Amino acid sequence: MTSFRFALAQFDFPVGATHANALRAKELADKARDQLKASLIAFPELTLSGYPPEDLLQRPSFLEACAVELSSLAPRIEGIAAVVGHPDTRGEVFNAASLLRGGAVEWTYHKQALPNYTVFDEKRYFRAGEHSRVFEIEGVRVGMLICEDIWEAEPAAHAAAAGAELLLVINASPYDSRQAATRERLLRQRATENDVAIAYVNLVGGQDDLLFDGGSLLVQRNGHIAARAPSFEEMLLAVEFDSASRSLKAIDWPETDEGDPHVVMYAGLVRGVHDYVCKNHFSGVLLGLSGGIDSALTLAIAVDALGADRVTAVMMPTRYTSDLSLHEAKAQAEHLGVEYHVLPIENIYESFVGTLAPVFEGRAPDITEENLQSRSRGVLLMAMSNKTGRLLLSTGNKSEMAVGYATLYGDMCGAYAPLKDLYKTVVYDISRWRAGIDGAIPKAVIERPPSAELRHEQTDQDSLPPYDELDAILERFIEGEQSAEDIIAAGYDDATVRRVIRMVFVNEFKRRQSAPGPRVTTKAFGRERRYPITSGWR
Amino acid sequence: MTSFRFALAQFDFPVGATHANALRAKELADKARDQLKASLIAFPELTLSGYPPEDLLQRPSFLEACAVELSSLAPRIEGIAAVVGHPDTRGEVFNAASLLRGGAVEWTYHKQALPNYTVFDEKRYFRAGEHSRVFEIEGVRVGMLICEDIWEAEPAAHAAAAGAELLLVINASPYDSRQAATRERLLRQRATENDVAIAYVNLVGGQDDLLFDGGSLLVQRNGHIAARAPSFEEMLLAVEFDSASRSLKAIDWPETDEGDPHVVMYAGLVRGVHDYVCKNHFSGVLLGLSGGIDSALTLAIAVDALGADRVTAVMMPTRYTSDLSLHEAKAQAEHLGVEYHVLPIENIYESFVGTLAPVFEGRAPDITEENLQSRSRGVLLMAMSNKTGRLLLSTGNKSEMAVGYATLYGDMCGAYAPLKDLYKTVVYDISRWRAGIDGAIPKAVIERPPSAELRHEQTDQDSLPPYDELDAILERFIEGEQSAEDIIAAGYDDATVRRVIRMVFVNEFKRRQSAPGPRVTTKAFGRERRYPITSGWR
């Protein structure tokens, strides 16, 4: 018995970029062979199409392109075997992995477990496979699995029963703040119940509202985690499998910084902004900088993602804007070295009010006038985005999105919302952590009471419960699917709970028109939480 | 052998309104018993929850409420049996129909075929049933089916094999312009292949981006369509089944107006606006009236849906607005008798341009300035919506949505977009047809060349191919999933086809933030067509 060496390609394979993905697979295979001396390389799930390709999978020309790339790739993979993910069309479409070896496609495995919950719609696109696949390489029998296969017991058990000494799982498993722990628990269980080691390789990168975190893993057959790859970084990982002990060993994997969950989440937010902007070919970003914590954190993320020279911040004051806001916004922009503009909106606001005066005669000021300020800012920022080609970031957080404390076509303007899935209390946590590194976020911004500054001496708590209470209720209601009665029974104020839940329901229309943003919780607004706008249920 | 009489309840059962839906079922059962002398009444699919309840089905409290309504309803259904649709929770959740008879739930059938394509996500929510259900009433054996069950061959065949003399299908089948013909073809096939008559009852009403058209059907066992109920109208339909001949007879069904597809589509658009506005508790609507055909048709639909006194039209001219636009907008508003305002936007536009001058210095005017006009209008309309509580209708059509010929946060502002799924050529067809009835749309508006009037002497054809060519390409690309090569091979200009397809791909980000609107084609933007924004595929 000897050992055999293989490589896990923890890389980004962008959605739709079939040809570029095939080229990247070829390059990485060459590198794994030459530099790592690997005899096998495994790429993430749906390597060639990217994940999730969504309804591109319903275009015959897209499926054909994936098939062509696979066929052209096979003879170009030389001196190494490669496991490549791709959609496979045989009358119906399968989520597949093929082994390219000896210049040809040796076999194609079809994913057996298709997730059709939370963010996944795989039963919309794929037919489930019905057979395991165990293949031999360097005298070792390897069981092939794709992502969801490992979340059910049967596929691993069947592969083990068919003699697999090692399970190889290729994945496109999205990040959320609890996912790494869940994955480890699951993999430990599958390893021990089948007495088999597992090599788990995951995609990296931002794709619309999903983040893929990498975090590839090696698990011994006794359930011990032998190695963890860093999150949100692309890397080629070498692994050695020892046939005698049926154990895995990581070769020169970098250290990971797992102690602090802030590190991982922040890295995900940065990656999300970077990938959304770059994959959509924007030259940079701009955002409204208000002197509040949301835009301050968004600015820090943008600079970390793109560099200061690709970021523009715009302060758009009114009579309600405090000196503190003006001062701190400017201070942060200067500290970070970004382009900074001050565009007062009083004239614009007055021209709206003047134009509307004939139709608003006799009606008292209300939320309308507050929204006019927010929308004047939105129009200015969109004009700057149009003129400069920089993408507008929206700065809203999950607490606001939940209860509708945001103006549609106002501060909700923007192509991407980095904080969309962060509750306000998490915005504070992450901001404190980020500020602690190098003062990228001013201390005064973190410590001031939150305010939209749309009227005199306004604070968020005029309209909303304190954020720690609000967020606790929201998390129970949204992530926990708890009812009002459940939440009240847990000790929260009856009237507050009912008011918050009502706000969540009636603001579905705003969320439906909101920008995408990176998912970091176990239930994000968007594809993961599909609620009717029109609903009699309260 | 005798005959037996039953009723089909072609009605709206709004999503989430569990208690109101149970009350309505009780009232209709009483009416069917007393006025129609029916011994059975059948309600549409998921009667109690409404369809589609989407992720409300993941709330335990919602499922519990449906169960409670079913239990409370059973003893209140007296002197008649009732087939009621509802989610049924037994560890997992099923899409179910129960027979309420003799004061109790006699049995519960679980839908066997779960659609998970186009607009449907039923495998996200439901587990499939595995058994047919044939029940006896008045000596007749009736096979129970739910919607998708009839789209597959097995469930009907199993029910027939179990002795069903009649198939009863309860449905929530969404409208599109081809669906009625498809349904009839399918029902004829199932009837003849099983030699069994079919009674098909369908939901009515608008639910976010879906329209349910009713159009209930009776099909003889030889495949002959015995009766068609009108589309988009609520009604209680009496049916007699003759045991000797195993044939169905409609009792006093109203005449239907099937000759002209415009009638049905227009009725759907009117129903869509009515239901969206009323179910979401708005007092009325407002819209920007430009003098162009899209807003003119939208205004006519709004008035037909809600009455003139619940509709406000606003003309917002600039120097680029033609006299024709000013004249025709006013003429239409007066003809229809709606509240009408003229709010020039020159001052607002100038205040934006002035504020932006320092940052735009040295840059030539471009699309930015056109968008500023559109966004100034959007902000004005949203202010009027906020102040008056009237819902803003967006007036864009499918051709514009497809190629991005619309301003995000500008003319795309609005809670509901009645023409969202109508190609521009269909907007013309329907407008001509509607104008022909009573001149609700001015002839000059229909005949003028289309223009956004955002710069001097602009027409749509400065930027776009002629609409008949554009729409033909779009329909092949979107509904037909054809590739550029396919479309070019069909005789369209190479460069035009590639340009149009590119525009469709790169404008996904706009569509993602667009208002919902009623689906009328076989592939509508939104839940039916799920494309990545970020994509390397062109």
UniProtKB/TrEMBL annotation, chains A, B:
Q: Provide the binding site for ATP.
A: 288-295, 395
Q: Name one Pfam family in it.
A: CN_hydrolase
Q: Which reaction does it catalyse?
A: deamido-NAD(+) + L-glutamine + ATP + H2O = L-glutamate + AMP + diphosphate + NAD(+) + H(+)
Q: Name one GO cellular component term.
A: cytoplasm
Question: What InterPro entries has UniProt attached to this entry?
Answer: C-N_Hydrolase, C-N_Hydrolase_sf, Gln-dep_NAD_synthase, NAD/GMP_synthase, NAD_synthase, Rossmann-like_a/b/a_fold
Q: What does this protein do?
A: Catalyzes the ATP-dependent amidation of deamido-NAD to form NAD. Uses L-glutamine as a nitrogen source.
Entry's family note: In the C-terminal section; belongs to the NAD synthetase family.
HAMAP family, per database record: NadE_glutamine_dep (MF_02090)
Record-given protein name: Glutamine-dependent NAD(+) synthetase
Source species of the chain: Luteibacter rhizovicinus
